[in-house]
Amino acid sequence: MNRNVEPLDPSKISITSRTLYQPPLDELMNVLAEGLTTNFAEATVEMTDCPNFAGWPYNFYREGLCGNPIILDVGGPAYLLPTVQRDKFYDIKSLLRHINYNHDTLVIGAGAGPWPHTGCNCELIMKLNVRNDKVSQGYRLGMGVANGTHYAFVNKSNGECILERIVANEDETTFALLANLYACEGKPGKVIKVCAKKRTGKLDFISCMQKALEKHYEDKLVGLGGTFEVKNGKVKQHIMSDFSDTPLISETQLNNWLRFYNMETPLIAVGTFVSTETDLDLRVQHFHSAFDENKLGGHYHIDTTPDTIEYEGYFNVATTLYRVDQPPNKLQFGKD
Question: If pLDDT is split at 50, 70 and 90, which confidence band does 96 have?
Answer without folding.
Answer: very high
